[in-house]
Amino acid sequence: MKTVDIQEKIVKLAQLINEHNHRYYVQNAPVISDFEFDALLKELTELEAKYPEFILPDSPTQRVGADITKKFPTIEHEVQMLSLDNSYSIQEIKEFDERIQKGLESKHYEYTCELKIDGLAISIVYEKGKLKYAATRGDGKIGEVVTNNVKTIKTIPLKLHGDNTPDYVEIRGEVYITKSNFEKINQNRIEIGEEPYANPRNFASGTLKLQDPREVAKRKLDFFPYFVRLRENETKLSIKTQYESFEWLKKWGFKVNPNIELCKNLTEVEKYLTQWQTKRYTLDYETDGVVVKINDYAQQSILGNTSKFPRWAIAYKYAAEQVETVLQSVSFQVGRTGIITPVANLSPVQLGGTVVKRATLHNAQEIKRLDLHEQDTVFIEKGGEIIPKVVRVNVEKRKKTAHPIVFLTHCPECNTPLQVSETGIHYYCPNSYQCPPQIVGRIVHFVRRNAMDIQAIGEEKVEQFYKAGLIRTPADLYKIKMEDLLKLERFGKKLAENVIKGIEQSKTQPFERVLFALGIRYVGETVAIKLAHHFKDIDNLFNAKAEEISQVYEIGEKIAQSVTEAAKNPYYTQLVQELKQAGLQFKTDEDKIQNTLVSNKLQGLTFLATGTMKNFSREQIEKTIRENGGKVASSISKNLSYLIVGNEPGESKIKKAKELNVKMISEEEFINMLK
User: Fold this and answer.
1) Average pLDDT of the segment spanning 75-93
2) Could you give the CA distance from residue 16 to residue 19 in angstroms, rounded to a whole number?
3) pLDDT at 67
4) pLDDT averaged over the chain?
5) Which of 365, 335, 337, 360 has the alpha carbon at shortest distance from 425?
6) 168 in helix, strand or coil?
7) Positive or negative CA dihedral for 273, 277, 278, 280?
8) Which of 50, 116, 220, 461 is catalytic?
9) What is the mean pLDDT of residues 584-601?
């Protein structure tokens, strides 16, 4: 194929994939299957690996194209990002409307009502239709440049759609995470023994400040735009109203919040505010109010701004809904990692459109902070939290004879004395391998869809098998026979066959899935993949020292220590041995890796990269090395063939490479090796 044809194919593939991305993430109307999409992306990735000189700035592969950022540079906003004045009652909205009438001298005006997304405000600048940079609000005048992180958000186009795009445009909006994604992330953290994040807003804000865009990409942030600013000398396009700006945003490829309304008068505004008082709880994202704006841009200019707020807009904040109910009891749940979580059992009460019977108490410190007593009258709210929580106690209604709630000293399930976690926040049961909820929790984790994927077995069946004495470890699943299942309640022949079939099929799961399923602390899905690909089999991994494990890219000391402790733990050594005998995969399939090779040009060579590359992220350059037959080293040794040196390389790596006479090459020299 000619070079011109290859370049043209890369351009067409990038355009096609971007279009399908837009259909999936923005329009929610995909026209091809995930398999077909992955095939297109794989084809583009392979072509770009062979011909990196043709990689486009808006290529879908570049959404996570930058390496770790040591420091975020700052930038001055061309026009200050003002805050909004807040209101908390309909009366304050009426007073705002009176000021508008006075400022516009009673001329006709309209409002837009937009849900106030509880996230992080950012500014995105496009020049000639291409994303130039993105910055946080900061102090309103100066923000931090977070372009590489923003590029990972699929609902933000890298290039504006359509032909009618201005030479310069600034889009302002809110970065957030959906409730459902937030819950999944917290569930995964709990399962590997990490603390769950507090709330979606803080999580989204913290994510956008992470140093590594690849980690940002995994967290699946989202974006709603709320403002378009053109320069005064813009001649290609004229936008006259706020409501019209949303139509342009849709045309340019943004996902616009569908709940924006144009209101002709104050009565319609009040109706909107009342409607969303409870309806907001049905949304998959947090909203803490409504932003009311004058629709006409010319009228906005007449009204102007104060030093802090625009006079033409106001935020109506919903008070976090609180309800009063009675604490019936406190129960203590034991999680898979042994952490004890106190839960308030309440008299049923309506909150946010649902009946609430339970609320989280977080930990022992929270019970102490609340000074919680038996049968207390408590206030609960959802606020920025997904799960209802107890926020305060109505002490005036407390009975004089009420006793304080005391945190347990022993496990409620196995009576083992509790210990305090390293953070000093949580109590946990150290009886990991005999405590029933921990045993069940580990097996539930093992059969999960993203682990061994035994779909015929869920949490309920795991508990049933455990109570029947069929299982005590994940390995026992592979010892279950048909006759064992037919003795159980509600088990017919068809269901028993499906369970046996599911268990048998799970034996084909690759090594990285098996490694994740073992449930080693801190070894999540991504970590399991990195360790499996690096060490190739379980014996290499379990025989490795912590220092060697921590040298694997993106694997820290905490993970390395956890793996080495598991390797010495009789529970894991016995489990691995039994699972091996059952026929599970504990080696990386080299044939499958070989089938994904683009070429053998780097066969027999070992590489290590240091510093920032122009054409590759660290992950991409390692992938390119492997796809062309080479190996990636975790540290510098005399066996290293080449050290690829980018911008701002690690001084210690350069020094050691010189000491060992390791050949150092530039990124350009590496690319030439692939041609």
Assistant:
1) 93
2) 5
3) 47
4) 88
5) 365
6) strand
7) positive
8) 116
9) 72
**What pLDDT is attached to residue 553?**
65
- Contact between 49 and 674 under an 8 Å Cβ cutoff? The reply is yes
Q: What is the pLDDT of residue 577?
A: 97
* Of the listed ranges 79-93, 192-206, 284-298, the one predicted with least confidence: 192-206
Tokens of 515: 């490694």
pLDDT for position 156: 95
**Per the CATH hierarchy, to which homologous superfamily does domain 78-317 belong?**
DNA ligase/mRNA capping enzyme (3.30.470.30)
Report the distance separating Cα 337 and Cα 440, nearest Å: 11
Q: Which helix (H) or strand (E) holds 125?
A: strand 120-127
In whole angstroms, what is the distance from residue 563 CA to residue 112 CA? 55
DSSP E strand boundaries for 199-272: 222-230, 261-263
> Alpha helix (H) ranges present in 569-599?
570-582, 590-595
- Write out the DSSP string of 426-483: -EE---TTT-HHHHHHHHHHHHSTTTT--TT--HHHHHHHHHTTS-SSGGGGGG--HH
- The alpha-carbon radius of gyration of the chain (Å, integer) is 29
Q: Is 389 a catalytic residue?
A: no
Q: What is the DSSP letter of 610?
A: E
Q: How far apart are alpha carbons 495 and 464 in whole angstroms?
A: 14
Give burial (CB, 10 Å; 0-12/13-18/19+) of 30. Answer: middle
**What's the CATH architecture for 597-674?**
3-Layer(aba) Sandwich (3.40)
Distance between alpha carbon 4 and the CA centroid of its chain, in Å?
A: 39
Which residues, 6+ apart, have CB-to-CB distance to 657 below 8 Å? 636, 640, 643, 664
Q: Which CATH number fits domain 511-591: 1.10.10.10, 1.10.150.20, 1.10.357.10, 3.40.50.1260?
A: 1.10.150.20
Q: Answer left, alpha or beta for residue 28, where phi above 0 means left and psi between -120 and 50 means alpha.
A: left
Amino acid identity at 223: F
In which band, very low, low, confident or very high, does the pLDDT at 393 lie, cut at 50, 70 and 90?
A: very high
Q: For residues 295, 299, 304 and 309, what is the CA-based torsion angle, rounded to 10 degrees? A: -20
Does the pTM surpass 0.90? The reply is: no
pLDDT of residue 297: 95
Out of 124-133, 191-200, 553-562, give the one with best mean pLDDT.
Answer: 124-133
**pLDDT score recorded for residue 388:** 85
Sheet holding 168-176, edge to edge: 130-136, 120-127, 168-176, 222-230
Distance of alpha carbon 299 from alpha carbon 109, whole angstroms:
8
- How far apart CA 369 and CA 55 sit, in angstroms, is 56
